[in-house]
């Protein structure tokens, strides 16, 4: 067989080249040669190394950066009261979207999500739906809004990741956690760290991971910041945010780390104290000037608090540091689009295209930008390409919806009608399409159909003011003043500043007064 | 007559003593109070109508004044004030049994969140001594901690028992505030930063303290006593069958001097003059008072007195104007005066009749001498003698101090009334022998529970066996501090192993004087040949106490009771006016016990962490189960729903059991921590002045660094370095 690499080195090399399965297999072979591989405390340093390498390889296979996982389950959302203030002053809480403070566009121009926040240019778990009012609503939302919110943060994605331990090894898990003597491993800092990550990420057994971390940090005489961060992570997963906060703060005192700052901010995010989180970020920025993740974190918080202009400012700051930051480009792009500058938005989306982002959503946006920038030739080609790139029916529905929009814009109502119908064929939960279709039906004089469509739209998306207002206007036209008034009230609730609604209500009130 | 200027019904229950008024946005005063289920509510009537449009989930206008804060733990103390002077507005401080939260209400953000293992029973906010920034000082189990606005603890010391009340007051008139601490061992201690400058013994747990002005402060006890101290002297006190829930100093009659406002458990609020304790104003609530605060709640430039009751009723009173001349009661001065004078007249008439009767009898008595006794005439030279002695007790009676009261002739004592603080339950004691065994001699057993000097105020009824009227003799006798120790011979029992050694530069005679004053000796000890040795046996637990004095001023005290050693040193130091005293001490048995406690504390911490993680895990499971069950319900899948709810029920029961375990664990931990704090306090008590504070700080550093050997060395020699 000519030249053969030293097996451990080869395993190491596999690991470096991110061929984790191969690495793990090789390590298993190595470990089988020396018996008792469950006990790496024997004198054979080679077996220790192989053992450690295998744990790391298995961990890396399922590793997801803990910072970016933010899934607040339904249960946490509904049942926990981590936030101190139940009704905080507007602008100090993430729970209440409140009015936009930074003078962002009104909901008349920029659509809002269910929670009343303007849609963002970049999909994050927390941007999709807000905090529902009741348990029933909370359970229903994921079904209709395609958010796939997990039941609790402890279930959901973590469980899926955790099952990896069963799959990788048909003859049983690599380590039997209940048989491990954690205290012994805690004495060996190098092995303990690999083992911790394995338990935490691969086995997903937070309780045991916490035990190990607690023992290890004691062994390190509370002087190792890394362990403190890990303990904090465990507490965070368990939902013990105050304990987590303490650990992260203590770790930060020993060692300035961007990661720790991000974790700490996440804790405050959960405690619904965005201003404290901002404070943490800004303190972090003083120590790590220009750090992109910190800037981005600030921008996200401002965006969640509806302070669009400040958010855009920080996204720009991000781009100054890292001009390939997709999230920042997308957010600024959508911001420009909704603030009536489609040409500038187009430039940002083109930039994304240059960077190799090649998907349905991007072409969709490009198409719309082109349309509003009156570059009609590009519009249809972009949207066509978007349609061809659509991966699932929801995406296709969105593209058809936008096509319908374009058709309305150029006055081809027949095409628009068909486009909206196609949207609904692809996704029958598309409230906006129902609404627009209803408007078209009104124009055709099909009042009853329009009314049914509007009712469907408003039940699907109670947060949108348009169906309510349209319904009110329609009822007003046909003389059903009572229904009109009720719908107008709903519309006002969804968008208090809508002038037409206000006028309608005023008018109705006059009518009622006359009666 | 003073009527409330506003009355509010908040519809939220208020926990007693958990009321604070703060300007959380720098301008508008808001009322914050703890309510049930670990919540704090803030009543803000000023922002009405400001955020009506902002808010999607609109509330009714009544409710929108109140915002609730979730603390998720039982609130044990609460205050508001300026913690960070740069912020320009007040922050809210909330203490629970395990944590302290400083919360910026305006910005919905934490200033800091600290774990305080000793708990927070009382909190006070303000400047202390020379420390430059405002401190939030919390009193927990035997410990005091002060935090600045970043959560750094700039102040730490220990005290004798669980702290129940705190106040800041310029006690010695130097322009800086001293800390008053009322604790469960009935003591009010005054800390000048971390040094105790004064100690006053009361008769019950001190539940509230309130600075009045200057060095004057009010206090309230758990037995219903309310009073005012000026420095260490008590001005007045009154006792009620109700409990004082909250006291506050407020100038209600605009005479420039604060009155003591007391909120009682029966719903009464009264204002008493600081000089006499005379009631100048009172009002009644339907339920117990929760707290009394002051502030400009109507934003009209006048400060109001605000009283809150436990069921959420709030009343505000404006101070009476000058014209009312302090007359706040509904009755007029004239009526009062007439009532007072007629009362006096009644008394005088009674007295006069008595004298007439007596003189009539006296005239008659020339004839019938035997009847003397009946009329209550006793020989003019009758004297009442009192003697204190140690009674070693018998089989039927425990050892005690005996107060013997006797008359100097054949008269008898009908009854004796003894008033002394802290010895008898209810402060006074009456002895009235049955008619058959009346004699001229009465013995009263006393067992003072603590080693403090007590004044016995004795009133005896003296007369003849057949008298119907008696003469009252009044006298005061002081019970020496260490009266519960009987002199014993040095050779009988082995000397205790533990000892304290120190050297003083005083003459031995002075020490002997102290000895005579503080102990009940059969005859005054004479200065025998130095070295000089006396031994005592405690009447409480038969422990031995041995004091040896060498001619060069070296004194050694041997006793196994570290508290007693501390008391003796403190008493001796104050008698001999010693300012600083460093001692060498060794209490092997006590130290061994402490070592065990410290090991236990470590164990409890580990177990606690495990239990917490377990509980969090379980509660996660419960949450997911609940959502699943609800999901099944929404889908109409009743069978699954039932199954899920059954599982939920079982899990819930498990969780409850786990909680019980955790509770026990926590109480154990608290007790152990308390004994650690007490140990530090006792080690400090063995020293006087500067060495005392040094020992306390050094002990804390040692505990922080988990250095047990260092801790014991400090307790032994008094310093960390060799």
UniProtKB/TrEMBL annotation, chain A:
Protein name: Tetratricopeptide repeat domain 8
InterPro entries: BBS8, TPR-like_helical_dom_sf, TPR_rpt
Matching SMART domains: TPR (SM00028)
Record region (Disordered): 97-145
Gene3D superfamilies: Tetratricopeptide repeat domain (1.25.40.10)
Entry's Gene Ontology molecular function annotations: RNA polymerase II-specific DNA-binding transcription factor binding
TPR repeats: 397-430, 431-464
Pfam families, per the entry: TPR_16
GO cellular component, one term: BBSome
A biological process term (GO) from this entry: protein localization to plasma membrane
Top-level taxon: Eukaryota
The keyword Lipoprotein belongs to this UniProt entry's keyword annotation: no
Automatic annotation (TrEMBL), chain B:
Keyword Glycosyltransferase tagged: no
Entry-linked SUPFAM superfamilies: WD40 repeat-like
Domain Ciliary BBSome complex subunit 2 N-terminal: 20-126
Sequence ranges assigned to domain BBS2 C-terminal helix bundle in this UniProt record: 690-716
Domain BBS2 hairpin: residue ranges: 588-685
Any GO BP: photoreceptor cell maintenance
Subcellular location(s) per record: Cell projection, Cilium membrane; Cytoplasm, Cytoskeleton, Microtubule organizing center, Centrosome, Centriolar satellite; Cytoplasm, Cytoskeleton
Domain (BBS2 GAE) ranges: 397-482
Domain Ciliary BBSome complex subunit 2 middle region: 165-272
Source species, domain of life: Eukaryota
Record domain BBS2 platform: where: 486-576
Coiled coil segments of this chain: 338-372
PANTHER family named among the record's database cross-references: BARDET-BIEDL SYNDROME 2 PROTEIN
Protein name: Bardet-Biedl syndrome 2 protein homolog
Source organism: Gopherus evgoodei
């Amino acid at each position: 067989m000519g030249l053969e690499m030293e097996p451990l080195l080869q395993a190491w090399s596999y690991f470096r080249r991110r061929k984790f399965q191969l690495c793990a297999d090789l390590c298993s072979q190595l470990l089988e040669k020396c018996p008792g591989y469950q006990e790496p405390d024997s004198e054979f340093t080679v077996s220790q190394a192989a053992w450690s390498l295998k744990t790391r390889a298995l961990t890396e296979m399922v590793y997801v950066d803990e910072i970016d996982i933010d899934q607040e389950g339904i249960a946490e959302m509904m049942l926990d009261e981590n936030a101190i203030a139940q009704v905080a002053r507007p602008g100090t809480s993430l729970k209440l979207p409140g009015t936009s403070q930074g003078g962002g566009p009104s909901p008349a121009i920029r659509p809002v999500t269910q929670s009343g926040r303007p849609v963002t240019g970049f999909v994050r778990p927390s941007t999709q739906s807000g905090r529902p009012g009741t348990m029933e609503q909370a359970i229903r939302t994921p079904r209709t809004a395609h958010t796939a919110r997990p039941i609790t943060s402890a279930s959901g994605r973590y469980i899926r990741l955790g099952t990896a331990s069963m799959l990788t090894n048909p003859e049983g898990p690599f380590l039997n956690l209940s048989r491990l003597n954690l205290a012994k491993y805690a004495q060996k800092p190098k092995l303990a760290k690999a083992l911790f990550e394995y338990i935490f990420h691969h086995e997903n057994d937070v309780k045991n991971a916490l035990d190990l971390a607690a023992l290890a940090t004691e062994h390190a005489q509370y002087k190792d910041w890394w362990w403190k961060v890990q303990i904090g992570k465990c507490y965070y997963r368990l939902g013990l945010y105050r304990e987590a906060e303490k650990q992260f703060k203590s770790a930060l005192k020993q060692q300035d780390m961007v990661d720790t700052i991000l974790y700490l901010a996440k804790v405050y995010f959960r405690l619904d104290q965005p201003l404290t989180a901002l404070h943490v970020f800004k303190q972090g920025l003083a120590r790590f000037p220009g750090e992109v993740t910190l800037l981005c974190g600030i921008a996200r918080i401002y965006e969640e608090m509806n302070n669009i202009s400040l958010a855009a400012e920080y996204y720009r700051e991000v781009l100054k540091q890292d001009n390939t930051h997709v999230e920042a480009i997308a957010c600024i792009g959508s911001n420009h689009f909704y603030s009536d500058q489609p040409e500038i938005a187009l430039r940002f989306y083109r930039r994304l295209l240059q960077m190799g982002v090649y998907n349905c959503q991007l072409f969709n946006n490009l198409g719309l930008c082109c349309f509003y920038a009156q570059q009609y030739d590009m519009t249809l080609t972009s949207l066509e390409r978007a349609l061809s790139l659509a991966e699932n029916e929801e995406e296709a529905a969105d593209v058809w919806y936008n096509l319908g929009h374009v058709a309305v814009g150029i006055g081809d109502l027949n095409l628009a009608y068909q486009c909206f119908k196609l949207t609904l064929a692809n996704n029958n939960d598309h409230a906006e399409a129902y609404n627009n279709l209803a408007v078209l039906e009104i124009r055709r004089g099909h009042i009853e159909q329009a009314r049914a469509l509007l009712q469907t739209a408003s039940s699907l998306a109670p947060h949108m003011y348009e169906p309510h207002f349209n319904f009110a206007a329609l009822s007003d036209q046909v003389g059903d003043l009572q229904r009109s008034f009720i719908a107008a009230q709903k519309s006002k609730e969804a968008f208090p500043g809508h002038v037409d609604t206000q006028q309608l209500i005023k008018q109705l009130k006059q009518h009622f007064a006359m009666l | 007559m003073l009527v409330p200027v506003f009355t509010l019904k908040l519809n939220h229950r208020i926990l007693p003593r958990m009321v604070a008024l703060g300007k959380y946005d720098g301008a508008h005063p808001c009322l914050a109070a703890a309510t049930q289920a670990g919540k704090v509510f803030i009543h803000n009537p000023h922002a009405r109508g400001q955020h009506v449009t902002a808010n999607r989930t609109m509330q009714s206008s009544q409710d929108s004044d109140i915002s609730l804060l979730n603390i998720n733990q039982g609130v044990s103390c609460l205050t508001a004030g300026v913690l960070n002077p740069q912020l320009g507005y007040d922050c809210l401080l909330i203490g629970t049994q395990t944590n302290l939260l400083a919360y910026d209400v305006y910005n919905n953000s934490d200033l800091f969140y600290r774990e305080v293992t000793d708990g927070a029973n009382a909190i006070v906010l303000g400047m202390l001594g020379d420390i430059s920034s405002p401190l939030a000082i919390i009193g927990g189990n035997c410990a005091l901690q002060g935090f600045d606005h970043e959560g750094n603890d700039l102040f730490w010391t220990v005290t004798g028992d669980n702290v129940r009340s705190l106040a800041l007051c310029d006690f010695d008139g130097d322009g800086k505030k001293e800390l008053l601490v009322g604790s469960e061992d009935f003591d009010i201690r005054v800390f000048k930063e971390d040094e105790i400058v004064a100690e006053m013994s009361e008769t019950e747990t001190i539940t509230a303290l309130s600075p009045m002005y200057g060095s004057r402060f009010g206090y309230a006890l758990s037995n219903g006593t309310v009073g005012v101290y000026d420095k260490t002297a008590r001005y007045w006190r009154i006792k009620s069958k109700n409990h004082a829930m909250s006291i506050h100093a407020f100038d209600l009659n605009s005479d420039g001097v604060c009155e003591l406002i007391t909120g009682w458990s029966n719903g009464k609020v009264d204002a008493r003059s600081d000089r006499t304790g005379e009631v100048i104003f009172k009002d009644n609530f339907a339920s117990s008072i929760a707290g009394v605060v002051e502030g400009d709640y109507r934003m009209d430039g006048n400060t109001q007195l605000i009283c809150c009751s436990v069921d959420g009723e709030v009343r505000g009173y404006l101070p009476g104007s000058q014209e009312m001349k302090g007359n706040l009661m509904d009755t007029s001065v004239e009526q009062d005066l007439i009532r007072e004078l007629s009362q006096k007249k009644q008394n005088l008439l009674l007295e006069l009749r008595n004298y007439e009767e007596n003189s009539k009898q006296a005239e008659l008595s020339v004839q019938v001498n035997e009847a003397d006794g009946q009329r209550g005439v006793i020989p003019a030279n009758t004297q009442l003698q009192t003697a204190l002695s140690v009674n070693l007790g018998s089989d039927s009676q425990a050892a005690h101090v005996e107060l013997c009261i006797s008359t100097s002739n054949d008269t008898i004592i009908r009854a004796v009334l003894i008033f002394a603080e802290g010895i008898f339950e209810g402060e006074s004691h009456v002895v009235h022998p049955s008619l058959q065994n009346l004699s001229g001699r009465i013995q009263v057993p006393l067992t003072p529970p603590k080693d403090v000097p007590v004044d016995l105020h004795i009133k005896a009824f003296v007369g003849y066996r057949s008298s119907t009227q008696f003469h009252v003799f009044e006298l005061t006798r002081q019970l020496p501090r260490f009266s519960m120790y009987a002199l014993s011979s040095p050779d009988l029992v082995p000397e205790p192993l533990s000892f304290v050694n120190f050297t003083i530069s005083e003459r031995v005679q002075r020490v002997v004087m102290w000895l005579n004053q503080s102990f009940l000796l059969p005859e005054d000890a004479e200065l025998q040949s130095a070295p000089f040795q006396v031994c005592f046996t405690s009447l409480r637990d038969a422990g031995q106490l041995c004091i040896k004095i060498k001619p060069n001023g070296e004194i050694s005290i041997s006793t196994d009771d570290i508290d007693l050693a501390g008391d003796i040193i403190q008493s001796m130091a104050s008698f001999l006016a010693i300012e600083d005293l460093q001692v060498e001490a060794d209490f092997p048995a006590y130290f061994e016990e402490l070592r065990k406690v410290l090991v236990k504390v470590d164990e409890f911490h580990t177990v606690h962490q495990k239990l917490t993680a377990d509980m969090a895990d379980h509660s996660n499971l419960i949450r997911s189960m609940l959502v699943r069950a609800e999901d099944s319900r929404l889908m109409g899948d009743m069978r699954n729903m039932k199954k899920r709810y059954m599982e939920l029920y079982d899990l819930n029961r498990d969780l409850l059991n786990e909680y019980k375990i955790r509770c026990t664990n926590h109480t154990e931990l608290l007790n152990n921590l308390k004994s650690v704090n007490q140990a530090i306090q006792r080690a400090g008590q063995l020293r006087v002045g500067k060495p005392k504070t040094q020992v306390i700080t050094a002990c804390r550093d040692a505990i922080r660094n988990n250095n047990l050997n260092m801790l014991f060395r400090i307790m032994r020699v008094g310093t960390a370095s060799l």
